[in-house]
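Q: Could you fold this chain for me?
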Amino acid sequence: MNLIPKKDEMTPKERMSAFAKGEAIDRIPCIPLMGETQTPLTGKKLSDYYHSPDLMAEVEITCFRMFGHDGVGIGPGLHAIPEAMGTKLKFPDEGLSFVSEPVLKDYADFDRLKPDDPHSDGRLPLILKALQIIDKKIGSQVNIGSGVGGPFTAAAGLRGTENFLRDLQKNPEMAHRLLEIVTESALRYIIDTMMKGTREQILAEAKECLRKTYDNPKGYILSTGCQIPIGTPPENIIALMDAARIYGRMPIDPEILT
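A: Sure. Below is the predicted structure, expressed as structure tokens.
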């Protein structure tokens, strides 16, 4: 079997536009999620990333030019919304940000909370500026987007995860245990596949995903389950993109997926 990826025939923007319209595309879209975890590719520190819109943009642009994936963007992630509302974070030089002090220690203080203003509160204005820089530099080639953690994530950042779960659940012990196990399972799968896997393992995992979904009438996007872990070899991201170019070539041949 020929496992040499063919050159893309469409730009990411052309591909995703056709995909959205249900039109023919050259291969399965592939969107590994980049963000701050890929800051080491620029030789900079993660702690600098969180406070520099220029570095946020540089990371995304560097990754796009290196891998050619089909979607680019950044967002508040897990913590920027609660931070903008008063929660304090820590920013390690070589690790992800984390909550150091939730703002809502007691519901007696609830009325002090105010909805954030993305143009003035916390680091949200920096993120918006970074999106503008990215769009100006590569927006003609690839769609630029943004995402945000869900309400439970933001609430946990404001109240503290254990406190929040205790507030809401009738059986907090079992709920906590369940959340732990499903989260641990998901994280292990993501990290083991993208960070520690060999090229052959990543190709095989991606091939299996496509085998299960290639004939979905609504389409399918090959992606990582969450953000790519810190320290993931660039060769592993290339392997994921290669899988889209090898097995996701349109029209997909079911024979190569068996």
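A (continued): Strands lie at 30-33, 72-73, 88-90, 98-101, 144-145, 222-227.
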